[in-house]
Design brief:
This protein is α+β, with helices and mostly antiparallel strands and 73 residues long. Helix content is 34%, strand content 14%. A hairpin with a 2-residue loop joins strand 1 and strand 2.
Amino acid sequence: MDPVPWPRPVRPSPEGMPPGELDALQVRLRESLVRSGDFYLVQTTLGGKVWLRTTLINPLTTDADLEALRRAA
């Protein structure tokens, strides 16, 4: 059984960022995206690390919407 839930959480990890700062980055990134009003993400903790995830429930969501979220993150 796959131990990672679906939809798969994401954890943006800029090259060179110290591992100790990655959790705080996830929190700030989520707050910024939610505050913009364009996206809604939730955070979860897996393996002691903060991850971001989204649930797609709008049947009108397009590939372009997902690409815009990827660029924003």
